[in-house]
Amino acid sequence: MALYMKAAEILDKVEQKKGAVKTLVYESKYQNIKQLFALVCETHKYSSVLQEIIDSTSFLKETKLRIHLAKVLAYDLLIGRGVKCGGTWKVMMMKHRSRLQAALARIKIKRKVSRNEDLLPSGFQQMQGDVIPRFVRVNTLKTTVEDVIDYLKREGFTYQGTASRLEDLDRLSGKSFLCDLHLEDLLVFSAKMDFHNHFLYKAGHIILQDKASCLPAFLLNPPVSSHVIDACAAPGNKTSHLAAIMKNKGKLFAFDLDTKRLSTMSTLLLRAGVTCQQLANQDFLKVDPQSSEYKEAKYILLDPSCSGSGMVCLRDKALEPQEDKRLQSLAAFQLRCLNHALQFPQVQRVVYSTCSVHSEENENVVSACLQQNPGFRLVHLLPNWPERGHDPFKQCLRANPAKTRTHGFFVAMLEKRSLQREGENVLITTTLPAGGEEKQDIQQSSAPDEEQENSETASEHPTNPGSKKKRKRNRKKTQNLES
Ligand SMILES: C[S@@+](CC[C@H](N)C(=O)[O-])C[C@H]1O[C@@H](n2cnc3c(N)ncnc32)[C@H](O)[C@@H]1O
């Protein structure tokens, strides 16, 4: 019963656009997160069909159930695993079973389809084949990749080395796993692997984070001891990633408007061993860039609220035409945030990211911002990343299940022009698949010769195989994971 109540509560919020499924499920503190997440996602996908079924029967009127609870129960009865609770709800659902089944059958006949999946709105049908592997980020504040691999091997997992091609990820099954081909602190497992109850997760040694969502902090790559702003930070996965890159040194200012999400974030950061953060329940747009507190802030990560249309289980809703108005208002907010980020006097780099597939929230925001801020330009990111921003924003990255085996995502990095002397080359190389040929991308800078202050040039990025940082990056053995 508790499962259905929680699922209905979250579905209600999701349909009112009060939050993303993943966050709401996590915040619910329900013990079986995976089960709750699956039920909410699936009911949400079939929401319009369930509404049609319910409307065509007297189910709501007779049971006096609220619509979201009715949908969740009807989903499990007709499409899911069968109603699993006992008591009055089970009796009630059994009483209405044949009428609800008949209503579903009538809809299938009307639409001339035989399978339930064929009733899904087209956006959801496309993604039925999309399987996203389980990505696990090793929290280097608490452990090392080697220690996690050893620990898992002792538990019967099979380590298959570093992936060399995207297709290697599709072949993962059972307890086999790989190191990711782009991000060295990321392990990849089959989609079915669940770590929510695993010791490594509960102890904060691993973070369950989609690969695309790991890109912003990885690309921003703030140096140890730097001052960094995470503008829209909760629930804090990217904040903890930034802290790991900064080795918990320096200052990490993290803002979020939402008190509840911030409190979840505090728990998450505590578990991850983050100590360099300064959390504030504050509107980023009202943070004063001129305040002396931020006078050394050179790196900003901006991951503002977005339509969430890249999240696989939300895809069809976000593609509905009536979303246009909402997209415009989100885009306006995102542009204000990005413009605001560029007002910090010492800012050198800003990474802008969304989990949206819409150009309105991605390339269009970046384009408008660059027009309004000619002192900034785009940095060409990871040259061998397979999915690029829409024309002409090839410097930016996109991600999606088909091309990158991740949720839909967008990342851009803006850099202050004065960081590069005119005519200098910005060299950005990338970690390559094992055995792959080294690729480099040389971009001609057209920046005016204002000041040469950037000691953190792109060639020092750890993705550059030759960078000092990468050479020095010896993963320290820290705690014994079993202690
Ligand atoms: C996409 S989520 C951020 C996810 C986060 N970066 C992470 O990786 O866990 C967007 C966040 O922006 C927050 N937000 C929305 N408007 C804001 C504002 N004006 N100032 C600060 N935070 C804001 C929302 O509460 C939400 O938590």
Automatic annotation (TrEMBL):
This entry carries the following GO cellular component terms, namely: nucleolus
| Keywords, in A-Z order | Methyltransferase, RNA-binding, S-adenosyl-L-methionine, Transferase
Which residues fall in a compositionally biased region of kind Basic residues? 467-483
GO annotations under biological process? rRNA base methylation
The molecular function terms of the Gene Ontology recorded here are: RNA binding; RNA methyltransferase activity
Which SUPFAM superfamilies has this protein been placed in? Answer: S-adenosyl-L-methionine-dependent methyltransferases
Instruction: Tell me the active site.
Output: C355
Task: Give residue ranges for domain SAM-dependent MTase RsmB/NOP-type.
Answer: 124-417
Q: What is this protein called?
A: SAM-dependent MTase RsmB/NOP-type domain-containing protein
